[in-house]
Amino acid sequence: MYPRPIPETARPARAAYVALVAAVLVLWLLPLVTVMLTSLRSFEEVMAGNYWGWPKSFNFIENYTAVFKQTALARYFVNSLIVTLPSVIGVLVLSTLTGYVLSRHRFPGNRLLFALFVGGNFLPAQIMMIPVRDLMVGLGLYDTYLALIIFHTAFQTGFATLFMRNFIAALPDELFQAARAEGASPWQTLWHVVVPLIRPALAALAILTFTFVWNDYFWAIVLTQSDAVKPVTAGLNNLRGEWVSAWNLVAAATIMVAIPPVAMFFLMQRHFIAGLTMGAVKG
Amino acid sequence: MASVEIHNVEKHYGGFHALKDISLTIDEGEFIVMVGPSGCGKSTLLKTIAGLETVTSGRLRIKGRDVTRLEPGDRGIAMVFQSYALYPHMTVEENMGFGLRMAKRPRAEIDTAVARAAQILRLEEQLRKYPKQLSGGQRQRVAIGRAITRSPDVFLFDEPLSNLDAALRTQMRVELSTLHDRLGSTMIYVTHDQVEAMTMASRIVVLNGGRIEQVGAPLELYANPINLFVAGFLGAPRMNFVAGRVTSTNGGSASVTCGGDLKVDFDDLAETPAVGAAVTIGIRPEKLRIGDPDAGTSFPARVRLTEYLGRETIVYADAGDLATSGSDSGTGVFTIQIGDIQPFAPDAPVSVGFDANAAYLFAPDGRTLSAAKPVTQI
C-alpha cells in the first residue's frame, strides 16, 4: 500500500522525490509569501509593478501602523471578536448538550435527530442565503452582531454535534453506569464526568469553530452592511479603493487578520491533536 | 429480614428473552455468587437489581422496599465493575467520595467515609494519586472503596476480578471474603470463574439461558447437582459424561449399559427411569481410579496424555467405544484426576474403575435420577 518508502539505494528516485516535494511546497506557499512580501513594500513600488521581486525597501512599521491609522481595521477586529467569541461558546455549550443526549440517552427519534444534525452540514450555504437574510430582517436583527452570532452558532452546531456525539459515545459505558449507580443525576454526570473527560475535544472544537467563524466572509457580507458591525473578513474588502487600491496595506491587513486563528492553533495545538486522535479514555 | 427479594422477574430485549421468571430471596449478610456460561443472563440480572436495566415484568425489593421503578442511586446499592470504571480525572479520594459528593453530604461526613474505606482497603497512601498511577489490584480496591463509602444495603460485583492476573486474583478473592466477614453486608457477585464461586459464596446461583437452574451452598451444589447442566458446570476438570441405556429396573434400582459393554448398577434412585430410556451417567474425574482392584465397576482404557500439576495428576484415557461427551478435552476420552504423582507411559493400557454410588444418573431430559449424596462424602 501507499506510501511506500523509497529505498536508500535508488538515488535518482530519491532526488526526484525531494525536488518534487520542494516544488510543491514552493507552489503551495507562494501566494502566502507574496502577500507577506507585498505587505512590506511601499505603495510606489507596488504601483511600479514589482509584485514578485524582492522588495526595494522594507516598510514593516509604516505599513502595519498605517493599516490601523488609515483604515477601520481595529473596529473590524473588535467586531470579529464580538461575533466569534460568543459563537464559539454557544457552539461548545450546545454541542456538548446535544452530543451527550444523542450518544447516551436512548429515545425514539434519536437517530433521526442525529441525522438531521449531520445532514444539515451538507446544505450549501448559498441556498440558505435569502431565507436567512429575510429571517434576520424579519426579526429586526439584520446588520447586528446578533444576526451573525445566531447564524454561526446554529450552523456550526450541526458539525459540532457530530463531533461531540462521537467523542462522548467513545467514552466507556461503565463510567456512566458507575455514575448512575452512585446516584449522580444526568446533569451531575455531564458536569462532573463528561465535561472533564472531553476537554481535548472541546479544545479541538473551539479552534475549528473559531477558525470557521473568524474566516467567514459569505455570511459577513450577507448579514451586515455597516462598518460598525462588519467583521474583518468583510472589512478587508472595504480597504480596496474605488479607483486605486493600496495593495501593500491590504496585504498587511490580511496578515493581521490571519494571525488570530493561527495563534489559536499554536496555543492549543497539544489539545487539538489529542482531541482529533484520542478515542476512548482508558483508565 | 430478607435483604433482596426478586419476584418473577422477566426481561426482554426486543425479541431476546434474557431473563425468564427469575425468583430468588437473598438473606441479610449473604454472599451470593451468580455463575453461568456467557450470555446466561447473570450480568443482566445483576444490572436489573442495580437498576441499570429495567425489568419487563416482576418485582424487586431491597430491605422490604419495592425498588422496581427506582433509579439505581435510590436503591441502596453500590456496584463494582469489571473494568473498575474509575473516573480517570479524579484522584482516589475524589473517586471514593464521588457518590457522597453527588448526594451533597457534608464535607466532614465524606472525609470520614473515605478515610474509613481507605483504611479497610489499605489505600491510605494512594489517596492523592490518580487511577492511572495505580496497579490493577489497587484500582480494583479503589472501585470497592467507592462502593464502601456509600454504606449500601447491598454490594453488587460484576466480574470484578477477571481483569486481574492469576496471582492477584487469588489475593483479591481472599480480601473480598475477608471484607464480607468484616462488613457483614449482603453481597451479590457475578463471575464465570467457578473457583470464585466455590470459595466465596454462601450460596451459588447457577444460571443458564436466562433461567435459574439451581440455588444452594457450594458443596451442596457440587455433591447434588439438580441436573446435567449444573453437574457439568461446577467442577474442574469437568465431570465425565457417558451415554447409556437402561436395560432393567427393579424398584429403586436400575442397570445401565454403555458402549464398550460397561454395565453400571444404580441403587436407591430418587426416581426410577423406564427400561430402554437413553440416560447419561456422570462420574467426577476425582472419583475415577486407575488400577484399583477394589473398584466396583471398571473398564479398560489406554492413556492418551498425562498432565502433572504437582499436587495432582490429570490423566486422559481413551476407552475405545466407551466415549464421553462434552469433556474438557473436546474428545471422547475420560478425564481422571489422581491425588498424587503417578507416571504413565503414553498408550499404556490401564484399568479405570469407580464405585457406582459415586456416579450420577441423569434422565433423558437432564434431571438427576441418582440418590442425593451426603455432602461430607466429598
Task: Report on this structure.
- Chain B: Keywords: ATP-binding, Cell inner membrane, Cell membrane, Membrane, Nucleotide-binding, Transport.
- The complex is a heterodimer of chains A (283) and B (378).
- Chain A is mainly alpha-helical.
- Chain A is 73% helix and 0% strand.
- Chain A contains 14 helices and no strands.
- Chain A has helices spanning 11-38, 43-47, 60-70, 73-104, 110-120, 125-139, 145-169, 173-181, 186-197, 199-215, 218-223, 232-238, 247-267, 269-277.
- Chain A is globular, with a radius of gyration of 24 Å.
- Chain B has 378 residues and is of the alpha+beta class.
- Chain B has two domains: 2-231, P-loop containing nucleotide triphosphate hydrolases (Rossmann fold), CATH 3.40.50; 237-377, Nucleic acid-binding proteins (OB fold (Dihydrolipoamide Acetyltransferase, E2P)), CATH 2.40.50.140.
- In chain B, 22% of the residues lie in helices and 33% in strands.
- In chain B, the strands form four sheets. Chain B has a six-stranded mixed beta sheet with strand order 6-7-8-3-9-10, sandwiched between helices.
- The model of chain B has no long low-confidence stretch (mean pLDDT 91).
- The interface between A and B is medium-sized, with 20 and 30 residues.
CATH architecture of the largest domain in chain B: 3-Layer(aba) Sandwich
Specify the overall morphology of chain A: globular
Strand order of the largest sheet of chain B: 6-7-8-3-9-10
How many separate domains make up the residues of chain B? 2
The biggest sheet of chain B, with number of strands, parallel, antiparallel or mixed sense and barrel status, is:
6 strands, mixed
CATH class of the largest domain in chain B: Alpha Beta
Provide mean pLDDT of chain B, rounded: 91
Proportion of beta-strand residues of chain B: 25-35%
**What does the radius of gyration of chain A come to?**
24 Å
Total count of strands of chain A: 0
Low-confidence stretches of chain B: none
CATH topology-level fold name of the largest domain in chain B: Rossmann fold
SSE string of chain A, helices as H and strands as E: HHHHHHHHHHHHHH
Number of domains of chain A: 2
Query: Largest interface, per-chain counts?
Result: A-B, 20 and 30 residues
Give the strand tally of chain B.
21
